[in-house]
Specification:
It comes from Fluviicoccus keumensis. This is START domain-containing protein. Keywords: Signal. This protein is an alpha+beta fold. The chain has a single domain, classed as START domain (Alpha-D-Glucose-1,6-Bisphosphate, Chain A, domain 4, 2-Layer Sandwich), CATH 3.30.530.20. Helix content is 20%, strand content 34%. It contains four helices and twelve strands, in the order ααβββαβββββββαββ. Strands 1, 2, 3, 4, 5, 6, 7, 8, 9 and 10 form a ten-stranded mixed β-sheet that branches. The radius of gyration is 18 Å and the shape is globular.
């Protein structure tokens, strides 16, 4: 009972924002604190209505759990790419983002981004410097791949914020014949500093689902259907005509 009371209090704190609230109705969420994960992927949630499925596992040598998510996004590949490159707009859909900005565009397909995350009550904010590399589509490669890795030494520390030492995420986007985009993401995040293990695992369990729900909403808004030309080619389904040439 004591464990359930603690977990319920944490749930109340973490679901204070609209984005987090999307994951609050997940049945069996308290089982997370009572179950030991192995190295095999274990399904956490399957939302048939939104076409979102999430998994978690505990990899050898890693303190926190890794996650995997598969979902269908309603939008074009061009809109998805614009969403991912709208770095100042991450606060509208990414997990508890307070601030995000582009530090450097190394090339048309490589970016350095600074992100600040809110933390649960009583814990300091987290910040992270991310290097993102895009592997574009081609006429022989339908998937667009985005690889993200943390670069904690890129900027001096900014106390009292805690620098996140690790964020390793690979996202693959593939156009489907039904006009949607298939998203497949695997990742690992280390929030750094002193965080109760069960609290961090709860966030990592909830965040992938909440992020995808918010992505779906942003794409449905139509805000990313038009805009400046993308810096790399993007193809939709069918005959894979190039929708953006330069």
């Amino acid at each position: 009972m004591k464990l359930k009371v603690i977990a319920t209090l944490l749930l109340a704190i973490l679901t204070a924002s609209p984005v987090l609230a999307a994951s609050a109705d997940d049945d069996g969420s308290l089982d997370e604190f009572q179950t030991r994960f192995g190295s095999e992927w274990r399904q956490i949630r399957h939302d048939a209505k939104r076409n979102i499925t999430t998994w978690m596992r505990q990899e050898d040598g890693k303190t926190f759990r890794s996650f995997k998510v598969q979902a269908e996004l309603e939008g074009s590949m061009e809109a998805v790419a614009r969403l991912m490159l709208d770095f100042p707009g991450y606060d509208k859909w990414y997990w508890q983002v307070m601030e995000s900005k582009l530090l450097k565009q190394v090339s048309p397909t490589e970016y350095v981004v600074y992100v600040v995350h809110r933390a649960p009550a009583g814990l300091p904010e987290r910040d992270v410097v991310l290097r993102g590399v895009v592997i574009p589509q081609s006429r022989s490669q339908k998937m667009l791949t985005l690889k993200i890795i943390a670069d904690p030494d890129y900027l001096p520390l900014k106390p009292p914020r805690v620098r996140m030492p690790a964020q390793e995420i690979t996202s693959r986007f593939q156009p489907l014949e039904n006009g949607k985009v298939l998203l497949e993401t695997e990742g690992y995040v280390d929030p750094g500093g002193k965080v109760p293990l069960w609290a961090a695992n709860f966030v990592q369990r909830s965040a992938p689902y909440a992020i995808v729900v918010a992505m779906q909403r942003r794409l449905k808004s139509g805000d990313y259907d038009q805009g400046k030309p993308l810096p790399f080619p993007v193809y939709d389904s069918g005959d894979y005509r190039q929708t953006v040439s330069r």
